[in-house]
Amino acid sequence: MSDLRDLLADTVARVADYRERVSDTPVFPDSTEGVREKLGDLPEKPAPPAEVIRRLADAVEPALVATTGPRYFGFVVGGSLDAATAADMLTTGWDQGAFNQITSPAAAIVEDVAGGWLKDILGLPSGASFGFVTGGQGANTVGLAAARHHVLAQAGWDVERRGLNGAPPLRVVASEERHATIDCSLRFLGLGTDAVEPVRANAQGAIDVADLERVLDGPAIVCLQAGNVNSGAFDDFGAAIRIAHEHGAWVHVDGAFGLWAAASPATRHLTEGIEGADSWAVDGHKWLNVPYDCGYAFCAHPDSHKAAMSVTAAYLTGQGDGGVRAPGDFVPESSRRARGFATWAAIGELGRAGIAEMIERCCALARRFAEQLDACEGVTVVNDVVLNQVLVSFGDETDRVVEAVQRSGECWMGATTWHGQRLMRISVSNWSTTEADVDRGVAAIQAAWASVVDKG
Ligand SMILES: *Cc1c(COP(=O)(O)O)cnc(C)c1O
């Protein structure tokens, strides 16, 4: 066997070993001591690839966080499906530049196919354009860039050519409980965070439609949310989109994880009316369980999407060779990883029915967490568990309980502040989580709670 073949085979074996062990290792590393030392100083001389890889893996593996495993419940973090993981390894091996149909016809075609499938699964308009981006942050930025183009073009201003100096003012209307990446996107786009006119959220964290109506006054970008990152709440899309469009506004939906509710008949009602929006941001690496980094930006106005993103210029609207869309026209990067392969494989592994089943299972497991925790003395679940997110109060001891759970290594969940309360935040987004994993998580939380109460 060649050295390369040995190296790759050993590497794959190492990945397989890691993934097979992952559910038996502490979910968060006990310590990161020694990692820097093992990484060593800047090497002066070349080294054999196998040795380099061995040193890297030896140094880093003890410090990995078991996010691919079944008991990581922090933030909103998906695992990685087997086929998607393997396809991502192929993607690396093939090393295609997914800029257009010349740099990689295969990458362009696979994105085209997978993008069409995603629209179908998520109930988005079949004519929507799409870009495969790094994640929710990237998708929000692309959606809001298309919005910026569109709203200013309607005001007679070409923002791609003239920039924002001297442009008509652009209002951004968004819930006070919008995700932080919306603000970050507005910074990247030169609109600034002061451009946001906040709208009140209701008791569950969904946008207050009456307050939206009060704030709206002419053209603007309205940001709605499918899945509040704390509570999982959904905005009332039917009403909010109708009002926004009456005002000539563009509606962008941040559906990083929540848009996947549309993939299941059991939760689809939460997204009702969402197809009427103008742009949508969704993650692949969260609930679809594609490896990092993977997100999708969809747009109901392909020309505006392209005007905001294409490398060449807004006036080049040809489809390119063979009628295949150029992936690079819909994302901020020019040279980029071929993100379509892993998405195609994830959808291929689960199929439409399997995706629906995964979404339903995660929601059922979130309800299982909620029921068991709510039954504990002194513990309260504070949100309506409509999706995969659970917010739990342990009174004044919440932070100490969260820290104790994290230290246990049994599972990992973070803390948040929501509606003035410190809360444990649980997200069930991993395809491999089972009822037994939830029960083990509940036991770890109960043990942490008991230890904190004991210490008084
Ligand atoms: C996670 C998340 C984002 C950001 O997505 P990344 O993939 O981390 O860039 C945006 N909005 C919501 C609602 C999210 O949950």
From TrEMBL:
Residues modified to N6-(pyridoxal phosphate)lysine: 286
Alphabetical UniProt keywords: Aminotransferase, Antibiotic biosynthesis, Decarboxylase, Lyase, Pyridoxal phosphate, Transferase
GO biological process: antibiotic biosynthetic process; carboxylic acid metabolic process
Cofactor: pyridoxal 5'-phosphate
Region (Disordered): 26-46
Recorded GO MF terms: aromatic-L-amino-acid decarboxylase activity; pyridoxal phosphate binding; transaminase activity
InterPro entries assigned: Aromatic_deC (IPR010977), PyrdxlP-dep_de-COase (IPR002129), PyrdxlP-dep_Trfase (IPR015424), PyrdxlP-dep_Trfase_major (IPR015421), PyrdxlP-dep_Trfase_small (IPR015422)
Skewed-composition ranges (Basic and acidic residues): 33-44
One Pfam match: Pyridoxal_deC
Source organism, top-level taxon: Bacteria
Stored PANTHER family: GROUP II PYRIDOXAL-5-PHOSPHATE DECARBOXYLASE (PTHR11999), MIP05841P (PTHR11999:SF70)
Entry similarity comment: Belongs to the group II decarboxylase family.
Protein name: Aspartate aminotransferase family protein
Annotated source species: Amycolatopsis regifaucium
